[in-house]
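For the sake of clarity, the format in which proteins appear in this thesis is described at this point. The fold follows as a row of integers, each naming the local backbone shape at the matching residue. One such record is shown here in full, so that the layout can be seen directly:
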Amino acid sequence: MTGSSVVISWVTDVETGTRVNCGLAPEQLTERAESGVGAAHAAVLTELKPGTKYFFAVGTARKKFATGEFTTSGSPLKVASPVSSSPAATVPAAKPKPAAASIFAPKQEAPSTWETWGNVASLADHFARHGGDFQAKDADDYARMAWRFGQQAKQGGWQVKVDEDGTRRVYDPKSGAFAAYNANGTTKKYFKPNSRDYFARQPGRLLNAHTPESLCNTSARPAAGHNWKKPRARNLAEVRMKSAPRAVSNRGSRTTTG
């Protein structure tokens, strides 16, 4: 739990849908978070106010299983005191200096966690095990870092493998970071493996890591914020036909019967 987000998890005896309703009062649970179907459930509530008490209910879209409450960390936001109405000398505001021109484009804002992480129910576990690898502040911060890692990989220069099902595996030897992305561009995992040959042992065809097209998508609809491209067709000369088995000559052989 942080001042702006919290992960709520629970377990059911059978597989069901995942939904959390949240609000500032038990009868006003206006915010909602959902995830996939399973027996182990986890949902991430984001954009919460620091130092604030929230009420929540967990269950499915049709049934409520349990209720609870939590208070986010930090101090509540303070409302500024009203300005005195007594007359005072007016000081003209200084004109802001124009921003210096920059050759760099503004940093792209990451889409929401629900759009970038493939299985949101698994995010809490991945963050607990690997968030420390990147000093992530919370699960949302960890998901944003994984998304940005994929965006940076599109510039080329990193090692990339593509599996038959469209899974992309990316490895940055300099930082030691590794990530796997689903065919639609959503994140599957993001961490720093302990083994140096971890990427070499991963399945998939090694692509040209020096071209931005090495992270292109071959199937599925792209997720928000991703711009996968279809890879170029391979040269037909690379396709080799297996030679047919050579016939065995019977010339000179004899067959005897008893």
